[in-house]
Amino acid sequence: MPAQARTLFEKIWDRHIVADYGSGFALMYVDRLIVPDLSSRSLSQLRTRGLPLARPELVFGVADHAITTDPHSDDPRGLANPFIANLREQARHFGLTMLEIGEPGHGIMHVISPELGIALPGLTLCCSDSHSCTIGALGALAWGIGGGELTHILATQTSVQRKPKTMRISLEGQLPPCTQGKDIILRLIGEIGVAAGNGYAVEYAGTAIRSLPMEGRFTVCNMSVEFGARFGMIAPDDVTLNYVAGRPYAPTDALWEAAIADWRQLPTDPMAKFDKEISIDLTGLTPQVTWGNNPAAVLPIDGRIPDPASEPDLRRRKEMEAALAYMDLVPGRAIEGTPIDWVFIGSCTNSRLSDLRAAAAVAKDRKVPADVRAWVVPGSTGVKRQAEAEGLDRIFRAAGFEWREPGCSMCLGANGDVVSRGERCVSTSNRNFVGRQGPGSRTHLASPVLAAASACAGVIADPRKLV
Amino acid sequence: MSALTILNGPAAPLLTDNINTDLIAPMFRPAQAGTLRGLATKREDLASMLFAGLRYDAQDCEIPEFVLNRPPFRNARFMLGGANFGCGSSRDTAALMLSAFGIRCVAAPSFGEIFHDNCFKAGMLPLVLEPELVASLAHEAKDGADFALDVAAQTLRAPSGRVVRFDLPAFRREQLLSGADEITLTLRRNAEIQAYQERARALHPWSFPPRQQDC
């Protein structure tokens, strides 16, 4: 009898079950665990309880949320930063690998874990960060957890999880120029809403995904949690394998051959069934930009700010009014041309080399107006060094951008990189929530090319008119 | 974690959809944006940071209209929320701050999944109820009358006396009622975890980094 047809998700889920707890719950093995600086107290808790770290060789610590990105900082290694100092001290105590600031492995956890080959297809990976779903782009099962669960995994290398339902989102069509992974995911969330993925593990498929380079796939999977999906995945293919090959922590020689043979078996079987299927045609996709306070409040760049008066649902109308008031936008006006104060190019969504190359291509031989501050924050030391080797830093600097040190930075402002009250920022990050980039900040999410075009225009701008 | 068996008190209505964890547990109070010097850990600090962006203005004064600043709801034990409550960031301070404030049960039409998990770990019950039911409970809640939760009986009694029944997975119900430490429970399964690792090492040897410490 042939084996039951299974999805990519089910294949990886099934092989990681340590014990079945009934009612859909299982004790799952966690192959890799990443501890960011803000979560170092989970390590402190483990130590206070006198518990050993279960598998030090599977755990990696990294300073990303709290680290300064100021190139002129008097404490570039965060020696006086309580989160980073504690992470470093606990890493030494427990014998886990600390990816040190300034060394090639340092950066935003969701950028460096694939970059170093810590994250691999077929593995389970957890971080105490909701954007852990980024890593699903490799064909891995990666999910975000809270600090309490982090302590549990540190102590046991396992996590109790409830098996989600499965959803396949087929994204079809060829991407027009000036559209990127970011435009795909924003358009998708705009169409299905911010809660459509609750309870589901999502697999992205279709021609638009297959033709997307690895870094664009990370961008798409990164924002799965922004429509409620804890897991977002893409089946591994040649693009994935070429990306993983030769990474510092990737398997080599016979183990590499064994790994490839295994990964080739991971894609969803043709007859496998999903609990839900969605298909979206991306032909003619327009660069996207958000206007409101969740990622579903999104417009094509040539669109007009929606009018709450035409919204029949009363609750929805009140939400729109609140968002327009917070964002200080006028219904009916074009979003293009809205004056801005800030541009932030960075975050686990869009701080990889291809993002910086695309933004630099727009910024080349242009100038950021004096009243706009524009930052480029590379996702990792590796990205930064490669970008510098290609001269991208010089292009950005010549155009008036600030070229900063790696970190999460202005995506959430935990390190003090904040947008001031009432200021407007075009940001390549993932959340446009009220106060996300600092109390009273106004965020417009967009791709690196739209952000770079806006920086140079001083207003929200259509990148298609510049390239 | 302390057990959750019964809970009595007012229910604060906050029916906006998509209340995210940045709102529930902001990084900063509005008056204090800047570099983080530490995260709240003490109960009173956690409680005072709950919904800080909605509770305090830029001068750090209470905003009287916000529901948790109104007298009956300063002692809220429940919250009635909109759809997708707790979406966004995985920070478990969202659950810990609600719990520190005294709110150990949130009823809403749906929840962000990571927040939903974090609630159980914090000894809180995220209760999924139909939107119409949440709205009618919010109507009963508006004067600050007491609701009563009984986890063992799986009932929520509204001020009018009507009883809402719910059904939790056995695993979750036990977790709340016992308040048992999950790490201790899992460590009892160490033999199974070890057996799993040996099996995985044989089947997928590439999935472990090269043996250094343990060879």
Give a structural overview.
The complex is a heterodimer of chains A (467) and B (215). Chain A is α/β, with parallel strands linked by helices and 467 residues long. Chain A folds into two domains: 154 residues, Aconitase, domain 3 (2-Layer Sandwich); 178 residues, 2-Layer Sandwich (Aconitase, domain 3). In chain A, 30% of the residues lie in helices and 18% in strands. In chain A, the strands form five sheets. Chain A has a five-stranded parallel sheet with strand order 5-4-3-6-7. Chain A has a five-stranded parallel sheet with strand order 17-16-15-18-19, with helices on one face. Chain A has a four-stranded parallel sheet with strand order 11-10-9-12. Chain A is globular. Chain A starts with 7 loop residues before the first helix and ends in a 10-residue tail after the last helix. In chain B, helix 2 crosses helix 4. In chain B, strand 6 and strand 7 form a beta hairpin. Chain B has a single domain, classed as Aconitase, domain 4 (Alpha-Beta Barrel), CATH 3.20.19.10. Chain B is 34% helix and 15% strand. In chain B, strands 4-3-2-1-5-6-7 form a seven-stranded mixed sheet. Chain B starts with 5 loop residues before the first strand and ends in a 12-residue tail after the last helix. At the A-B interface, strand 1, strand 2, helix 5, strand 8 and helix 10 of A face helix 5, helix 8 and helix 9 of B.
